[in-house]
Amino acid sequence: MSAKKNKYSDNKNVTILDHPLISHKIALLRDVNTHTNDFRELVEEITVLLTYEAFKDAPTTEAVVQTPLEKTKQQVVVENSIAVVPVLRAGLGMVAGVHTLFPTAKVGHIGMYRDEETLEPKEYYCKLPEGIEKKRVIVLDPMLATGGSACAAIKLLKDKGCKDIRQMSIIAAPEGIDKIVENHPDVKIFVAVLDRGLNENGYIVPGLGDAGDRLFGTK
Question: Which of 49, 71, 121, 212 makes a 20 to 30 Å CA pair with 112?
């Protein structure tokens, strides 16, 4: 899987993926006629592909494995080294995708909502795994729009002592990426597709609508 050539190509902390499977699934995800169950499955599938890319440098240790023929040394991911923090509620749709590859990853939750007038994030819930400050933390949110909620979630995690933080989103607007780069230049960002920008209401265009509503069948 390669990184797509874009305005962030020279920024080593920003990865925009370029893969035909992702492009195909994004097309289905955008379609207004895609039903809730299919939408949810597509989010999980795209998250699996994002997770593979985002964890290429996952912390590993050497283990001895007994094969049917002999013992061999093998690199394995360090146990309890990963935590995922979905931003409620849409981020919940990405958790199962991460757990497909990292079933033991601990899960925290940060509740944010966007003020429809100011577009500023408001925190209403936070519950994090014990010892999260010692883990690699992945913030999950399908849509990286203004970047306000992502930056607020990242700041909260930093205030809790977390030092290894990554942002993972399916669709992003340049405004959202720019905000994280400006406010948290140490955070690595992984995105499946970069869209054109934001409309007058702060929604990503062409986007896919409200990811939370489409995931959970609400309006």
Answer: 49
In whole angstroms, what is the distance from residue 215 CA to residue 75 CA?
36
**Six-digit token pair at 99?**
């757990």
φ, ψ of residue 2 in degrees (nearest 5):
-110, 165
Alpha-carbon torsion 158, 152, 108, 79, what sign?
negative
Q: Which is nearest to 85 in space by CA: 187, 193, 198?
A: 187
The catalytic site residues sit at 114, 118, 210, 213
pTM metric for this prediction: 0.90
Q: 166, 188 in Cβ contact below 8 A?
A: yes
Listed residue (210, 202, 87) closest to 152, CA to CA: 87
Instruction: Give the model confidence (pLDDT) of 116-173 as tens digits.
Output: 777 677 889 999 999 999 999 999 999 999 999 999 999 999 999 999 999 999 999 9
- In terms of Cβ atoms closer than 10 Å to its own Cβ (0-12, 13-18, 19+), residue 2 is exposed
